[in-house]
């Protein structure tokens, strides 16, 4: 399993967040969903609009294919490229260990 961390540095205002949320829902999530081997994504956002997206996939290639799928999409009608500057950086890591927490003290 592999994880990708994608960083969007803040501050980002309400207009940029609304544009990012629309793009994620209408264009990016469907593009990633079409890539075999992608497992799940978590979106983490602070009050200043900074964000980290954690994406898990079966292989590193699935993450790379996800990037390609996203970059091959076209902006939808009404999307403003100026409000969608893209991530500040992205990193891929192999997942070394998964720990399930069941709420029982060890």
Supply database-style keywords:
single chain; 106 residues; alpha+beta; Alpha-Beta Plaits; 2 helices
How would you portray this structure in words?
This protein is of the alpha+beta class. It has a single domain, classed as Alpha-Beta Plaits (2-Layer Sandwich). The chain is built from 2 helices and 4 strands, in the order E-H-E-E-H-E. It has a 4-stranded antiparallel β-sheet. Strand 2 (38-45) and strand 3 form a beta hairpin. Helix 1 (14-33) packs across helix 2. The chain is globular and about 50 Å long. The chain starts with a strand and ends in a 12-residue tail after the last strand.
Strand order of the largest sheet: 2-3-1-4
How many extended strands?
A: 4
Query: What's the order of the H and E elements?
Result: EHEEHE
What is the name of the CATH class? Alpha Beta
Termini separation comes to: 26 Å
CATH topology: Alpha-Beta Plaits
Beta content comes to 25-35%
Average residue pLDDT:
96
CATH-derived architecture: 2-Layer Sandwich
- Quickly count the helices: 2
Output the structural class: alpha+beta
Radius of gyration: 15 Å
């Amino acid at each position: 399993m592999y994880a990708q961390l994608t960083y969007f540095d803040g501050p980002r205002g309400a207009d940029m967040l609304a544009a990012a949320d629309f793009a994620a829902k209408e264009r990016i999530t469907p593009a990633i969903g079409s890539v075999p081997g992608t497992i799940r994504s978590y979106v983490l956002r602070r009050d200043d609009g900074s964000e980290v997206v954690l994406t898990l996939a079966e292989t590193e290639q699935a993450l790379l294919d996800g990037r390609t799928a996203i970059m091959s999409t076209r902006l939808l009608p009404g999307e403003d490229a100026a409000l969608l500057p893209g991530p500040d950086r992205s990193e891929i890591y192999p997942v070394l260990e998964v720990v399930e927490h069941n709420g029982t003290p060890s």
